[in-house]
Amino acid sequence: MTWDALLPLVVFAFVTSITPGPNNLMLMASGANFGFWRTIPHMLGIGLGFVVLLILIGAGLARVFDAYPAAYVLLKVLAVAYLLYLAWRIASAAAPSADAAAARPLTLLQAALFQWANPKAWSMALTAVTVYAPSQSLGALIVVALVFGAINVPSVSAWALLGQELRRLLTRPRRLRAFNVTMAVLLVASLYPIVIR
Q: What's the pTM value of the predicted model, to 2 decimals?
């Protein structure tokens, strides 16, 4: 990768990491429901899971989908079903109560594994590898992965922080319920571009 391609890569990584998508909407809901500090493993899992996904796609996983298009369709169907399940869980989340300690945000491993079901993450990784590491050399993949790793976690953290700040407005169960339902609806709406392709 040349130095003149680095700035466009940084911009691409920032724009795709900071814009709304399943990860960011779930982080905002988690920040509102659990606070920023309890959401840190979720944030780190997103960064780690995405970097692993990106490297494996660059290492040849994308060729599997070229050879077996049905595998890509199956992945998309499973991803949409899982996101609908997560949207239902967000919408039906109860307001904090005496048993709030039992509720918990996604763990690092759950968030990392979620990247494999996240259509936006797949789209970002495929585009990043195709455009910024077309040779798919190990060096180019490492540069792309490092750039995304450095930009992704701070970007997604902003959404969890926004959710935590919204928490002050969501002190009544009815408001929190309305927020959770809104986040669930937005999560489902974020699937529209994936479903129509």
A: 0.78
